Amino acid sequence: MQSSLFVQAASGKATSRTPVWLMRQAGRILPEYRKVREKAKDFKKLVKTPELAAEVTLQPVRILEVDAAIIFSDILVIPEAMGLNYEMEENKGPVFPKKITSVNDLRGLHIASPEELQYVLDAISLTKKELNGAVPLIGFAGAPWTIFSYMIEGRGSKTFSAAKKMLYTQPAFSHQLLDMITESTIHYLKAQIRAGADVIQIFDSWAGILAPHQYKEFSLKYISKICDAIPECPKIVFAKGAFFARAEMNTMNCEVVGLDWNMGIAESRALLPDKVLQGNLDPCALYGSREDVKRETKKMLDAFGPSKHIANLGHGLYPDTEVDKVKCFIETVKEHNKLKA
Amino acid sequence: MQSSLFVQAASGKATSRTPVWLMRQAGRILPEYRKVREKAKDFKKLVKTPELAAEVTLQPVRILEVDAAIIFSDILVIPEAMGLNYEMEENKGPVFPKKITSVNDLRGLHIASPEELQYVLDAISLTKKELNGAVPLIGFAGAPWTIFSYMIEGRGSKTFSAAKKMLYTQPAFSHQLLDMITESTIHYLKAQIRAGADVIQIFDSWAGILAPHQYKEFSLKYISKICDAIPECPKIVFAKGAFFARAEMNTMNCEVVGLDWNMGIAESRALLPDKVLQGNLDPCALYGSREDVKRETKKMLDAFGPSKHIANLGHGLYPDTEVDKVKCFIETVKEHNKLKA
Q: What range does the domain containing B173 cover?
């Protein structure tokens, strides 16, 4: 796997063409995924059954021909393993029946051990076996700040004001909980790598709601800690909305930084000269015609240039995207680069 | 009113101290507001009854002692006047029973005339009379892109992917609808000024979900058109999340640019050297203790410096903010500046 296109690029090495994969490629848009999802009845069953998780992980490799697989799972398996159960409500997203409201609630939590997430590790082993070296496998976890937000809010939010209130009113407690999440995540990611993950990605989905000074103190610090603790493989950090932290991320111990579609490419290159960049086509660009998709994809590829780039969208795939347009995006990346070579 | 602290500052002139007001100050946090709200039964009744709208507009002037009033209304009165009725669902926000799905739906719409929004104009006249010159009055409207999004989505959204899909798949139709909204808004804002508004603010709440090139084409263009059409008074443009458009906004025909709390102050000064800046304390900073609020407010004031600044939050007040903390924010702005003078 060390010699694959994707791992080479993620390690900052030159490659014959730009590799491509998509966030949320495992699931959401494929009819083949929805069949497995129906078989599993609910989302968590799918996440917790290694055979099914492996199957939907492999689908985009076979059907879309992406250059990397990403294990089908959820960032909220970490708070669950720590002692805070979540449920997935149809069309509503995750909900925590109990949430963390004060330091007293920490008594119900513990630092998760990888054994509590054995089902993810089994899904990784199984996937690796079935991939049989075709493409590498990405493991992942949520950034501690994003996990913290869910544990405090109990669900998604427009302002995440309850989680942010905690940072302002109880900074010591906030750091204590963030530390527990960070420790759990380091153990978990190391176990994913032992089970076969070739590269790992950290998703900071709610990065964009913090003021720059708070982001540094309550999020970047913990992502850095994770990156420093994991020298085993290349690491991708995707902090959606954290345009203000790009300069600081250049000194972080990760090889790749993911960009969302708001972040200008030239500006990001200037702020992150030492990193491989991943991204960043607007997922809504795939709503256009095939011609539109080709044009927008080429524009993006030209802006990034032929090296130090992993092609992706600037966010996860939206559920109503047509498979044909996704294929068009992937093919365009592969073709455009060939022409350049 | 031309000589008031706030209008002077909004015109780019030197003032004895930094003026201060808050977005969503009219309503939300005051018990006095909730009493009027209960009397009116529902939100739209409150918006449409000039006496009640004027009353809640005046409350923050009397109770919080801000340096400007902002007329109590809603940005969605414009689509309603154009022919698309909205409803306000408790704890859920606005919902449009019918929404715009294709060019055919334009037949039900027209360019709104100010007479259709007479209730807002009456509320403005009434407020001005009762203010009796104490502080100036801010009028406002939503930016065309934000109004367009609501008309297409029918409600708030996490991704606004339906509205964005329209930009990608039907750009000509999108421009047609944006033009109609822009025309309606220009007439409306001019009427607000005739009725007594001293300064106007344009709110682009959903600026942050567009890619930079789309923001320029589908939002900035129309905000510029509005600014160009209204030489009568100073204009404030607040485009939440449009960090990427700051350099372009420096050449726009408005006097003041509002910043959200993600936007670095020094960086924004460099990108917007010709503008007065408004903002930008994180609304969640008001969850801290009085000492915290004072410290964070002073830090912000020092970063902006003593001139070309209108103090505000980086977003509207959150409903669970304590009145005492809001007062502390306002007092700190007034005191800190006095010390400097």
A: 5-278
Mean pLDDT of the region A190-195: 98
B217-274 confidence digits (pLDDT tens): 999 999 999 999 999 999 999 999 999 999 999 999 999 999 999 999 999 999 999 9
Contacts of A214 in chain B (CB under 8 A): 282
Contact A287 B164 (CB under 8 A): yes
pLDDT digits 0-9 by tens, B4-29: 999 999 999 999 999 999 999 987 89
3-state SS of chain B: helix, strand, coil percent to 5? Answer: 55, 10, 35
Tokens 């060390």 belong to A2
Q: How many domains does chain A have?
A: 1
Q: Residue B253 is which amino acid?
A: N
Rounded to the nearest angstrom, the minimum Cα separation between B3 and chain A is 35
* In a domain? residue B304: no
- In this structure, what CATH number is given to the domain that contains residue A84? 3.20.20.210
CA proximity to B149, closest of B207, B81, B82: B207
Q: Is B178 a member of any domain? A: yes
Structure tokens at A18: 């730009």
ipTM score for this prediction: 0.93
For chain A, give the mean pLDDT.
Answer: 95
Residue B122 covered by a domain: yes
Active site residue A215: no
Catalytic residue among A17, A33, A67, A74: A74
In angstroms, what separates the C-alpha of A53 from chain B's closest C-alpha?
Answer: 26
- Choose among A193, A88, A79: nearest CA to A136: A193
Nearest CA in chain B to A281: B211
Q: Is residue B295 in some structural domain?
A: no
CB–CB of A264 and B243 under 8 A? no
Percent of chain A with pLDDT over 70: 98
Give catalytic status of residue B24 as yes or no: yes
Model confidence pLDDT, tens digit, residues A262-304: 999 999 999 999 999 999 999 999 999 999 999 999 999 999 9
State whether residue A38 sits within 8 Å of chain B by CB: no
CA distance A164 to chain B (A): 6
Token duo for residue B153: 């989505």
- CB contact B249 to A (< 8 Å): no
User: Is the Cβ pair A212, B164 closer than 8 Å?
Assistant: no
pLDDT value at A90 more than 90: no
Its pTM stands at 0.95
Residue B2 vs residues B8, B11, B88, B135, B161: alpha-carbon distances, Å: 7, 9, 36, 10, 43
Interface residue B161 vs chain A (CB under 8 A) = yes
